[in-house]
Design brief:
Blueprint (H helix, E strand, L loop, with lengths): L1 E2 L20 E7 L18 H9 L1 E7 L4 H10 L25 H7 L3 E7 L17 E5 L11 E4 L2 E4 L4 H15 L5 E6 L11 H8 L6 H26 L6 E7 L21 H4 E2 L1 E4 L8 E8 L3 H9 L17 H4 L11 E5 L10 E5 L3 E7 L7 E7 L15 H18 L9 E3 L6 E5 L4 E3 L8 E2 L10 E2 L7 E8 L3 E10 L8 E6 L2 E6 L28 E10 L2 E11 L7 E9 L1
Parallel strand pairs: 1-12, 2-8, 2-9, 3-12, 4-5, 4-8, 17-22
Antiparallel strand pairs: 3-10, 3-11, 5-6, 6-7, 9-11, 13-14, 14-15, 15-16, 18-28, 19-22, 20-21, 22-27, 23-26, 23-28, 24-25, 24-27
Helix pairs in contact: 4-6, 5-6
């Protein structure tokens, strides 16, 4: 390979292919795929021929960084701004929601005349106007939560409706993306394909599962992760073939990256860290960019770069003029000078990382600062409950971060930590008040309030209510409800006063029949008595490895109409209460639905 800093590229304004109009964009994002999950990164245990070819057909960024977990990376990618500025600091309970006033690349490119489509995992807001349609995507197929429970014959959200599909989820999403490309041949398009693999649950197609099991890898999780990645690689090949067959390859910018480090301990180039960690291995990911006749092939960029750089880079490559207002200035910078072989104009810079602690408390969390040579890390040193302390590592001479040199290089560490403190104070100055779910918008008459989006108010002495899987990640539900003083609540913003029908999705064992459920908001009440049992067994799954708590099992739910609430305009909490307890534990609740009359 050769370094792009020695390559002068042909610029698009002088290229005949550009006369066809602005280039299309195909942006592909993997989920929980590490830097090492690519064959050409030195991993001979996995086969990724299409990703390897994508990297050699274009440029490979050797030091590309994202955030430690899913939603923060996606927020930075979408907006060109660090996730904390947009209010994103977690992965559930609405902590992943992007503020309404943040502008995404879909909105920018749609304004510039592009067709915009998203096919995969969103994870930056489940309710309009923070869902994909509200954030600039004209076409959406996928899911809004942090993960999906079933990858075979999935039920997915198509714009504002749920639809059943046949096949493996990665294939289904790719089919939809190719259909989008076919449907928009008369205008430039921006196709965002955020695949949800190799995120758990561990569900891989049979033939690939058999293939990697036979390789006798370190763990079954590693085998399944590689099987899921190879299926994604095959689908990326399908997308590239579609571009070629449609005559669009030369006029399409293709980018591939992942959203954080690997979700298990597997090969990762001997880097320290994995998903949810602020060390190098938790945030360094593959980044490949291809644009035939514009980006040099077989080139490697050694300069550090970040997910917030993607939006300004694409705007410059595509000739899209985007000037955010002063209150929403971009953190990212265009990578075009590096692609154009002009490293002399490239500034020295820091790339920042922050991983919030559990719950609504954003600080201090854990953090890091990356320069071209060093990584400064702020985290507990002697166990999770020990004090946080800054460490410093020389990544050029110690790529595995084995030796903390903070004590000997204060002159290096101090400006890095000062820069981090300044950045963090600025990025968090708007605070992190929970964003209310919007209800009553014209054209959006039904709002689904899922239980994992609720806040649980427990009895201080005994608890009395919990999520089924304790953590309350995506698709979880309310369970272990043993105290009528404990309740769940959602923050709502009613934009249009009126009457709303209320429904509850629940299950109830025979022992809890006769229990009462009620909803309250703004002084209005509605309730019911559960008069019959409904307690189906979990649905059969396709798991290759049993679930360990992050994803709950799938099961069917029954919907009951609770009544009608006449709600005033304004902000208030909707409370879900156990008004009467029969048996040891009350009904389990998956969701509450509000439907404007």
């Amino acid at each position: 390979m050769r370094h792009l800093c020695f390559v002068c590229l042909v610029w698009f304004c002088a290229c005949p292919a550009y006369s066809a109009g602005r280039p299309n964009v195909l942006l592909i994002l993997a989920d929980d795929m590490g830097w090492g999950d690519v064959h050409s990164h030195g991993n001979d245990k996995i086969d990724t021929p299409n990703l390897d070819k994508l990297a050699t057909d274009g440029a490979r960024f050797d030091r590309f960084f994202v955030m430690p977990v899913c939603a923060p990376t996606r927020a930075g990618l979408l907006t060109g701004r660090y996730h904390l500025r947009g209010g994103v600091h977690g992965v559930t309970r609405g902590y992943e929601d992007l503020r309404d006033d943040e502008t995404t690349f879909a909105q920018v490119f749609k304004q510039a005349g592009y067709a915009t489509g998203l096919f995969g995992k969103w994870h930056n807001g489940a309710h309009y106007p923070r869902d994909p349609n509200g954030k600039g995507f004209e076409e959406f197929l996928g899911f809004c939560a942090g993960h999906w429970n079933n990858y075979h014959d999935p039920v997915l959200q198509h714009n504002d409706k749920m639809e059943e599909h046949k096949g493996y989820i990665t294939d289904v999403l790719t089919d939809a993306a190719m259909s989008f490309i076919d449907s928009n041949h008369t205008k430039p398009w921006f196709c965002y394909v955020p695949y949800n693999v190799p995120h758990t649950p561990w569900q891989a197609p049979q033939e690939l599962w058999d293939k990697y099991k036979a390789r006798n890898l370190g763990t079954l999780e590693e085998a399944c992760a590689y099987a899921m990645v190879e299926r994604m690689d095959w689908n990326i090949g399908r997308l590239i073939k579609k571009l070629k067959a449609s005559g669009l390859e030369d006029n399409t910018v293709v980018i591939f990256l992942s959203d954080n480090g690997p979700n298990t301990a597997r090969y990762n180039g001997n880097m320290r860290g994995r998903k949810a960690m602020v060390h190098e291995g938790g945030v360094r990911v593959p980044f490949f960019i291809k644009w035939p006749k514009h980006v040099a092939a077989e080139a490697t960029v050694p300069n550090i770069a970040c997910c917030v750089d993607v939006l300004p880079t694409l705007c410059e490559l595509c000739g899209v003029d985007f000037k955010p207002d002063a209150g929403h200035a971009l953190d990212g910078i265009s990578l075009v000078p590096l692609l154009a072989g002009k490293p002399a104009s490239w500034p020295e810079r820091y790339v920042f990382t922050h991983q919030a602690g559990p719950g609504p408390d954003v600080g201090p969390g854990r953090g890091a600062v990356r320069s071209q040579k060093y990584r400064a890390v702020f985290e507990p040193v002697a166990g999770p409950k020990s004090p946080l302390r800054w460490q410093l590592y020389d990544l050029e001479n110690d790529p595995s971060q084995k030796t903390d040199i903070a004590k000997d290089y204060a002159d290096i560490l101090e400006p890095m930590t000062a820069a981090y403190d300044k950045w963090f104070a600025d990025a968090t100055k708007r605070g992190f008040e929970p964003l209310p779910i919007t209800v009553g918008l014209e054209g959006h008459n039904e709002v689904l309030l899922q239980s994992h989006q609720a806040f649980l108010q427990t009895n201080e002495d005994e608890g009395g209510i919990a999520y089924h899987n304790k953590s309350g990640f995506a698709n979880d539900w309310i369970a272990q409800w043993t105290d009528t003083k404990a309740f769940a609540h959602w923050h709502l913003d009613v934009r249009r006063a009126g009457k709303f029908e209320v429904f509850i999705d629940f299950t109830c064992p025979p022992s809890a029949v006769g229990s009462g459920l009620g909803v309250e908001m703004a002084g209005k009440h509605a309730g019911l008595t559960v008069g019959e049992a409904y307690d189906p067994a979990p649905l059969p799954d396709h798991d290759r490895i049993s679930r360990k708590g992050a994803e709950p099992d799938e099961k069917l739910w029954k919907r009951l109409r609770v009544g009608v609430l006449d709600l005033p305009e304004g902000r208030a909490d909707l409370l879900l209460k156990l008004t009467k307890l029969v048996g040891a534990s009350g009904p389990e609740v998956k969701a509450v639905t509000l439907r404007a009359q």
